[in-house]
Amino acid sequence: MDLIQSIPKVDKILAEPDCQQLLTDYPRPVVLAAVRQVLESLRAAAIAGRLDAADLNPAAISAGIERCLAAAEALSLRRVVNGTGVVIHTNLGRSSLAPCLRDQLADIAFGYSTLEYDLETGERGTRYAHVEQLICQLTGAEAALVVNNNAAAVLLVLSAMAAGREVVVSRGELVEIGGAFRIPDVMKQGGALLREVGTTNRTHPRDYRDAITDQTAMLLKVHCSNFAVIGFTAEVTVAELAALGKEFGVPVVVDIGSGNLIDWQGVTGMNEPRVQDYLAAGADLVTFSGDKLLGGPQAGIIAGRAVAVNPLKKHQLLRALRVDKLTLAALEGTLRLYRDERQAWAKIPTLRLLRLTEAELKIKGQRAVRHLRRQLPATVVVELISGVSQVGGGALPLAELPTWLLAVRSSDRSARELEEGLRHQPVPVIGRIARGDYLLDLRTVADSDWAAVVDGLRAVIT
Ligand SMILES: *Cc1c(COP(=O)(O)O)cnc(C)c1O
Q1: Which atom of ligand 1 is nearest the CA belonging to 153?
Q2: Domains of the chain, each with CATH number or no CATH
Q3: I need a labelling partner for 261 at 20 to 30 A (CA). Which of 38, 182, 271, 350 fits?
Q4: pLDDT(1) > 70
Q5: How do strand 181-182 and strand 176-177 relate by DSSP bridges?
Q6: Distance (Å, rounded) from C-alpha 200 to C-alpha 198?
Q7: What is the distance in angstroms between the CA of the first residue and the CA of the last residue of the chain?
Q8: Ligand 1 touching residue 255 (CB < 6 A)
């Protein structure tokens, strides 16, 4: 009780020289809030009988205030080290942009631009024109449109083409993508009526044929992005759907999800459909994300026949789903890299990380181990172990990418303490725990991240 009495008052603390300095560094209300927070925790400690006289000396109090201020000043949306090995990690921002786009993005972000200005005529232009030609060139589409994300792309397509009418979808493709995007729900939102056909594991062309009536607005195919049906299965191909669509005069739309433009089979032995293949097979429209396998910014791209795309450009909903200039700049820059596939592999981080081989990752890991051993006290032990990384982002769900992991052990911190401590650093490090070890996957940790890992580990173990 005596100690509670001796907890200083706000004014007294503010008058201390240390605090006076903080008042010149931070806005007064921010310092005041930190002081109150520290006093609150001192009172709570006193009541719990955990307060020590030393906690009340001015230096200890001002150190506490400084910690509060540092925590309050940290940005909410900030950089982290991705040690999970999940390359397209939706919670950690999916794809990182190609570093070579930095200047181009800065020009657009910090200045005026041609966003909706036509330099030829000196009159109003359209923001959608900047990437349309590139998308057409890369995918073979006649026309294209970019919206906020792929969920928005699907919603716009359904609203514009199928409101009040039926959309035929295989029961095996009524999928849920992370973040509560569910095909039946989006369908409802777009005002379309779901006409399910086939079964979970097998759907045949005749199932679609039997379902087509004069109420049918579209045949929709949805890529099973984040799962696989194996065993006794049958799926109707885009070419088969296109033939049916043509026969009955019904448009065929494919939600391909990942936005893949590259032949993975040839590179990694993995199979993932490409946008251009589905368009060539006769799909009228294909929709896909900009920040999954494409490796660009969050965006939804609609590509296909001009007769299907052009009416979407005039739809009311588009105004609510429109992309901003930074997205367009990042997308234009990313797509340009695809004009030469070798450049895409080399410069787009998502592609580069997915293609890293076990041998390359081992070398990277050995370098990291040497570096960490030099930088960290002997109580921290780091070791390389083999493991598996994931693609993430609802793409290539079966792909298992062999990788090397850094197992970090400390004689005085448990794996859980390491995990939690590193997560709370100024540059948070996101790793995982498996079989009692704290693990960082070398695939997704950049060379420039090691300084943050070292700083974080030092802070956690002291
Ligand atoms: C990821 C995905 C979506 C949602 O895309 P967002 O860009 O996250 O909105 C929709 N459909 C499929 C098949 C997907 O894989």
Answers
A1: 9
A2: 2-73 (no CATH), 81-90+354-461 (3.90.1150.110), 97-347 (3.40.640.10)
A3: 182
A4: no
A5: antiparallel
A6: 7
A7: 32
A8: yes
Q: Which residue's CA is the closest to the ligand 1 atom numbered 13?
A: 257
**Is the C-beta atom of 150 inside 6 A of ligand 1?**
yes
* CB-based burial label for 346 (10 Å; 0-12, 13-18, 19+): middle
C-alpha 409/C-alpha 460 separation (Å) is: 12
Count of CB atoms within 10 A of residue 311's CB?
11
DSSP letter at 413 equals B
Phi (first) and psi of residue 303, to 5 degrees:
-130, 145
Reduce the DSSP state of residue 169 to 3 states and report it. Answer: strand
pLDDT in tens, 323-343: 999 999 999 999 999 999 999
Nearest-CA residue for ligand 1 atom 6 is 150
- Measured in degrees and rounded to the nearest 5, phi and psi for residue 328 equal -65, -40
Whole-model pTM above 0.90?
yes
Ligand 1 within 6 A of CB of 181: yes
- C-alpha 137 – ligand 1 centre gap (Å): 23
| 114-150: pLDDT as tens digits | 999 999 999 999 999 999 999 999 999 999 999 999 9
Q: How far apart are CA 233 and CA 253, in angstroms?
A: 22
Ligand 1 nearest-atom number relative to CA 298: 7
CA dist., res. 419 & res. 408, Å (int): 10
Distance 328 CA to ligand 1 centre (A): 19
Question: Hey, what amino acid is at 126?
Answer: T
Q: How far is the CA of 95 from the centre of ligand 1 (A)?
A: 14
* Contact indicator for 94, 88 with CB cutoff of 8 Å: yes
Section 79-88 average pLDDT: 97
Sheet holding 193-197, edge to edge: 143-147, 300-304, 285-289, 252-257, 216-222, 166-170, 193-197
Q: Which residue has the tokens 């005529």?
A: 121
Best of 150, 170, 298 for a ligand 1 pocket test (most atoms within 8 Å of beta carbon): 150
Encoded tokens for 83: 């040690």
The rounded Å distance from CA 398 to ligand 1 centre is 17
Nearest alpha-carbon partner for 337 in 104, 29, 151: 104
Per-residue pLDDT tens for 376-416? 999 999 999 999 999 988 778 888 899 999 999 999 899 99
Give me ligand 1 centre to Cα 297, in Å.
Answer: 13
